Amino acid sequence: MAVIDNLKNRLLNDDRAKANEIEKEAKTKADEILNAAKNKAETIFEEMKAKAEKDGKERKERLIARAQLEARNQLLSSKQEAIDKVLEAAKNKLENMSSEDYSSFIECMLLNNIETGDEEVILSQKDKARINPDVVENVNRKLVSNGKKGQIKLVDEVRNIQSGFILKKGGLEINCSIDSQIRILRDSLEGEIANLLFEGR
């Protein structure tokens, strides 16, 4: 049991370290995009402001408002692009994990999404070959220790998803593909990510 706990702790520590590394790399990329966007937005604003000051008062006010709107739109567009790049970097990191690390990641995802413990697991063709066959056995053992049934099974059926899995029970299916998880993450954290990346702007 101590060996399993040590292995579990090591895997969790490895996952945390990988998550921190993904976050650092994504933050660096996002900062680069943001700096370029800020510079571009400031240039647009200053050029249009200078032009507006040469014209009459009414035209000047109109052009300044337009310049501010364009600068704001450019910054908003850059924020969206940066968020896209952060999440894309995280997705790429997952796609390039070793088979062992990816199997551990899928194991964690299964444990977080299984409700009763007797669901069927449907993988993509790619993940069928990539994931360690012991994952289902490990998950079932952990489900039992958490008071669930521990009877999930991997079915022969495959789905047209890039990675991740579909959980099926009766007529109900839960899409746990990496793409769907990234979309959910984006929807739920978009505002939070933007605030963290663009504080004070």
Please explain how this structure is put together.
The protein is an alpha+beta fold and 201 residues long. It folds into 2 domains: 2-96, no CATH class; 99-182, ATP synthase, E subunit, C-terminal (hypothetical protein PF0899 fold, 2-Layer Sandwich). Helix content is 72%, strand content 12%. It is built from 6 helices and 4 strands. The chain has helices at 2-54, 57-95, 99-113, 125-130, 134-145, 178-197, and strands at 120-124, 153-159, 164-169, 172-177. The chain has a 4-stranded mixed sheet with strand order 2-1-3-4. Helix 1 (2-54) packs antiparallel against helix 2 and helix 3 (99-113) runs parallel beside helix 5 (134-145). The mean pLDDT is 80.
SSE sequence, one letter per element: HHHEHHEEEH
- List low-confidence stretches: none
Beta-strand content bin? 5-15%
Oligomer: single chain
Structural class of the helices, strands and pairings?
alpha+beta
Strand order of the largest sheet: 2-1-3-4
The helicity comes to over 70%
Helix count?
6
Round the Cα radius of gyration to an integer and report it. 24 Å
Extended strand count: 4
Provide the domain count. Answer: 2
The backbone outline, from C-alpha atoms, is elongated
- Kindly state the mean pLDDT as a whole number? 80
Distance between the termini: 51 Å
Major β-sheet profile = 4 strands, mixed
InterPro entries: ATPase_V1_Esu
Family: Belongs to the V-ATPase E subunit family.
Protein name: V-type proton ATPase subunit E
GO molecular function, one term: proton-transporting ATP synthase activity, rotational mechanism
